[in-house]
């Protein structure tokens, strides 16, 4: 695997849930474990924004609009990141991408999330 691969998106009604997964490419053994991961969202007509991040110590941070609804996590053995999204709103619609935070690597294709009202 040479690039980021996001999955788990789909069409859901408001109030529903989705769980996104992201497989990170293989690099030096400690690269994944030592870096912060992020989930980014690009809504229609808007720039890509960071919505959730998790540090190597598993400290998490969220943009205000998703606090209390989204949960980011990581599996350092599988080199995979996750984003649990609950109580989804129409404003959460967009393409979701994963990447490192601060040390970006080439972007993957993202996964489309569409929340219908």
Task: Describe what is shown at a glance.
Helices cover 3% and strands 45% of the residues. It is mainly beta.
What is the string of SSEs from the N terminus onward?
Answer: EEEHEEEEEEE
Number of helices: 1
Instruction: Tell me the distance between the termini.
Output: 37 Å
In which range does the helix fraction lie? under 10%
**What's the overall average pLDDT, rounded?**
95
**Contiguous uncertain segments of 5+ residues:** none
Structural class: mainly beta
Protein model, in words:
The chain has one helix and ten strands; from the N terminus they run E-E-E-H-E-E-E-E-E-E-E. Helix content is 3%, strand content 45%. It has 117 residues and is mainly beta.
SSE blueprint:
Elements: E1 5-7, E2 10-13, E3 18-23, H1 31-34, E4 37-42, E5 49-54, E6 60-62, E7 70-75, E8 80-85, E9 94-100, E10 111-116
Parallel strand pairs: 2-10
Antiparallel strand pairs: 1-3, 3-8, 4-5, 4-9, 5-6, 7-8, 9-10
Descriptive labels:
4-stranded antiparallel β-sheet; mainly beta; 117 residues; 45% strand; 1 helix; 3% helix
């Amino acid at each position: 695997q040479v690039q980021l691969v996001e999955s788990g998106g789909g069409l859901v009604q408001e109030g529903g849930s989705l769980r996104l997964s992201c497989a990170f490419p293989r690099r030096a053994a400690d690269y994944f474990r030592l870096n912060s991961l992020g989930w980014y969202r690009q809504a229609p007509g808007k720039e890509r924004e960071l919505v959730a991040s998790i540090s190597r110590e598993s400290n998490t941070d969220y943009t205000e609009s998703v606090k209390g609804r989204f949960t980011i996590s990581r599996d350092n053995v599988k080199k995979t990141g996750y984003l649990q999204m609950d109580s989804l709103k129409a404003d959460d619609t967009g393409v979701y991408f994963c990447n490192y935070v601060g040390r970006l690597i080439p972007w993957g294709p993202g996964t489309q999330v569409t929340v219908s009202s």
